[in-house]
Amino acid sequence: MRHNASDKLGIGGLERLDRLLEHRSRLGACALLAQHDALSFSRLKELLDETDGNLGAHLHKLEDQGYLTVRKEFVNRKPVSWYSLTPKGREALKAHLNAIADIGRGLRFKERT
Amino acid sequence: MQKDLAYVDELLEASRKDLTPRGVYLTWAVIGAVGFTLVDFAHGWLNFYWVVAAPLGVAASCTMAIRHGRKLGQAGSSVGKRQALQWFGLLVSLGLSFLLVFMNHLSWEGFGELALLLVALGFWQSGIHLEREFLWIGLGTAAAFVVLVCSDFRYEWTCLGLVWAAALGLAGLVREGARASQRQ
Q1: pLDDT score recorded for residue A41
Q2: Do B31 and B163 form a contact (C-beta atoms < 8 A)?
Q3: Which residues of A touch B11 (CB under 8 A)?
Q4: Domain spans in chain B, listed from the N-terminal domain onward
Q5: Which residue has the higher pLDDT, A108 or B145?
Q6: Which position has the higher pLDDT, B156 or B124?
Q7: A-side interface with B, Cβ within 8 Å?
Q8: Which residue of A has its CA nearest to B13?
Q9: Are A39 and A83 in contact (CB under 8 A)?
Q10: Residue B184 contacts A, CB cutoff 8 Å
Q11: Average pLDDT, stretch A71-90?
């Protein structure tokens, strides 16, 4: 694969970062959902160590962007929201992680030269 | 950014923990204890027992793991799929090793010992890739294999069954205890 000068320095990576995934909790939620078919709101809250309000807002943003889908069901008369990553979300996460990796490579290249 | 990646790694690691419910440990403790004891006391029932109990145990374990995952708030975990493939692979290799007996390459006694070694390897690999506790069960089973091959004690399989049941039962209870203290 050929790299131009900006790619070698990781500048291309900076441009390809997804603004929505720059927040830790949103990145974490997407990474977790890439690993599991679906996670409940309470499980995401426990793993991400977020409050109900904050997590709800983050997930809402991801849902609005089409990165997540939510399915609601009742278990023992209690509502449970199950979140899943959409193909668009998966692609965005992959591109974002690739961009971070490129930036890391660029920084190491800069240190060597 | 490196910190973000490390954070994501930690999250994924945390989500892979505690996916095996206590019921799975206890199910295999009972299946193993009965199955190993049959070698000494009712050898004629041994093949029938394992052919029926092993697949039923796998099916019950999968069902319990899926229900546990849903209770935990995780569905369709890739770790669960890997677990299922790991144990299905062990079951198939045990089934295929029957061929050695049918083709007269191995005696029934040798098959029992080979099966034990395969089970030890299965637990060892599962311990490396999936659940750390299984490493010790793998090591213990390998040690039991050495004792069985080298000793000539009349009720060695019964002893193995009891030790096996105690180890798995204890692992299940320790797991449950750790989970309960985490919840508090």
Answers
A1: 95
A2: no
A3: 28, 31-32, 47-48
A4: 22-183
A5: B145
A6: B124
A7: 24, 27-28, 31-32, 35-44, 46-48, 75, 80, 82, 97, 100, 103-104
A8: A32
A9: yes
A10: no
A11: 91
